[in-house]
Design goal:
Layout lengths: L1 H18 L1 H14 L2 H7 L16 H10 L5 E5 L7 E6 L5 E6 L12 H11 L3 H25 L16 H15 L1 H13 L2 H4 L2 H7 L3 H9 L21 H8 L5 E5 L7 E5 L12 E5 L5 E4 L5 H14 L4 H29 L1 H7 L4 H29 L7 H23 L5 H23 L5 H7 L2 H25 L12
Antiparallel strand pairs: 1-2, 1-4, 2-3, 4-5, 5-6, 6-7
Helix pairs in contact: 1-6, 2-5, 2-14, 2-16, 3-5, 6-8, 7-14, 8-13, 14-16, 16-17, 16-18, 17-18, 18-20, 19-20
InterPro entries: PepSY-ass_TM
Keywords: Membrane, Transmembrane, Transmembrane helix
Pfam families: PepSY_TM
């Protein structure tokens, strides 16, 4: 009975991991990068570098811009913070569409668009596929959680294997040691991330309660649970809107925290409201505490009360996943553990290939085994190359280009597709990993060089001199990854056929 149970759990661990392994790698990699999404947004807006920027946000310039561009929107959302000084202006329409534009915090002028860190954040939670992508990511998260639990139950030497890594063992053993080591090292983190990632959208996956209690209106649920203030449109035009900036001091006094965002509902209607709140950096739980004012005369309408235990638990779990608390140190911890998760997933998929090495060879490239092998190299080695190509595109594309963000994303997709095709073709001769590792090392090496040549104010020596560590960290991280990928490429070049595992030695 025990043997059968172990076999069943082993089967669950293997197939729940393999079926969504490539997708999980993209989700983990995107989430790892998104730990520093704001810093990446800042790096990809060089017109803001080397300038004296205001310490206090000014929302009125953004309001003026949106009144011209989207006066009939359902709501506007304005965001500014110390991690990304650009003033982010979001527009939400009644039909569900939304847009985002970055504004200069001093002049209010529109900055050149960029995909930025937001691209990886959205890739992480919905694959840029809207609700369908959210459901796919949710399913992948559930399977990941099941695979982790099954892996714990079948892992008899979980603590011993934490200290075991034999890169010279060759073949399957090195990959399995890497899988066990990174899996055990980040075990609490992997459980936390997979569970909280699903919980964040729990009401979208398990909507029976929302249908029964709120007629399917999920916004009504959150409004009631969070004690947010809402009022219906009255169908009369709003006269002159009160200054949002004039409300900042009052809101700061009401909430006891610096104001970093403003949300304006029904901006064209006499029922318009202005809600102001702070960021999520001071507590683990999300901070949705806000003060709402009448947009016509500025009178205070509502201050949210502390949430009930159930909703606060939800905020806490969401905050654990989104890592807006604890400053850079905690984000770096999540970043490193996220990388460990990527290695765990990648090595797990390679263990599957190594266990079936003879069958893989006999089946050839045009087979199911060949597809798994090609996807391994294309996803695991191709994704980092594509992400680096996007950084280079940010510096090399003309700043006058109408839609630079879309162009950067196109470069990312083309680079990833090209890397996957090349890697799959070269891997027939066991050169796929070596070639893509080498190409990624070269791309990472070029990032700080191209950055210095095209935008001198953003060069590593300039940012270190001025103490702008957020910008310097991007270049320094690229240098570290360039060295790491060059090392792996060198190790891969020295391996015999089907011995690529030594690239991680």
């Amino acid at each position: 009975m025990k043997h059968n149970a172990t076999q069943a759990l082993s089967w669950l661990h293997t197939w729940s991991g393999l079926l969504v392994g490539w997708l999980l790698f993209v989700i983990f990699a995107g989430g790892t990068i998104a730990c520093f999404d704001k810093e990446l947004d800042y790096w990809m807006q060089p017109s803001l570098h080397g300038r004296a920027l205001p310490q206090t946000p000014s929302f009125d310039k953004a309001v003026e811009h949106l009144q011209k561009k989207a006066p009939d929107a359902h709501s506007w959302y304005l965001l500014v913070g110390d991690r990304d000084p650009a003033l982010q202006a979001y527009t939400f329409m009644d039909d569900g569409t939304e847009t985002r534009v970055a504004l200069d915090p001093v002049t209010g002028e529109v900055l050149p668009s960029t995909a930025g860190g937001d691209f990886f954040f959205e890739l992480h939670y919905n694959l840029h596929a809207g609700n369908l992508g959210m459901y796919i990511v949710g399913l992948a998260g559930m399977l990941a959680f099941a695979a982790i639990i099954a892996g714990i139950l079948i892992h008899k030497r979980i603590f011993k294997d934490f200290f075991t890594f034999r890169p010279a063992a060759g073949k399957q053993r090195a990959w399995l040691d890497a899988h066990n080591l990174t899996g055990v090292l980040g075990l609490p983190f992997h459980l936390l991330i997979s569970y909280t990632g699903v919980i964040i959208f729990a009401t979208s996956y398990m909507f029976a309660g929302v249908n029964a209690g709120y007629g399917g209106d999920i916004n009504k649920l959150y409004t009631e649970a969070g004690d947010f203030y809402e009022r219906e449109e009255v169908g009369k035009p709003l006269g002159k809107m009160t200054s949002t900036d004039a409300l900042l001091d009052r809101a700061r006094a009401e909430l006891g925290t610096p104001i970093t965002w403003a949300s304006i509902h029904h901006p064209h209607d006499a029922s318009a409201t202005i809600a102001l709140g702070g960021d999520h950096s001071r507590h683990v739980a999300w901070n949705f505490h806000q003060a709402t004012y009448d947009a016509a005369d500025g009178r205070l309408l509502h201050v949210t009360k502390p949430p009930a235990a159930g909703y606060h638990t939800y905020e806490f779990l969401g905050g654990l996943h989104m890592v807006q608390f604890g400053g850079s140190l905690v984000r770096w911890l999540y970043f490193v553990l996220g990388l460990a998760g990527c290695v765990m997933i990648a090595s797990g998929m390679q263990v599957w290939v190594r266990k079936r090495e003879k069958r893989v060879r006999e089946a050839g490239a045009v087979s199911g085994y060949g597809l798994v092998r090609a996807l391994n190299v294309g996803v695991v080695a191709g994704f980092p190359f594509a992400a680096t190509a996007m950084l280079l595109a940010n510096r090399l594309l003309p700043w006058s280009l109408a839609d630079r963000a879309s162009a950067e994303i196109l470069v990312f997709c083309l680079a990833w597709f090209g890397a996957t095709v090349w890697g799959a073709w070269a891997d027939r001769n066991d050169r796929g990993w070596r070639d893509l590792f080498a190409a990624t090392a070269a791309a990472f090496t070029l990032v700080p060089i191209v950055n210095a040549v095209t935008t001198p104010n953003s060069a590593l020596w300039s940012t270190l001199r001025t103490g702008d560590l957020a910008l310097a960290a991007v270049d320094l991280t690229c240098i570290v990854f360039a060295i790491s990928y060059a090392w792996m490429a060198r190790r891969a070049a020295r391996t015999a056929p089907m011995r690529v595992e030594e690239a991680f030695a």
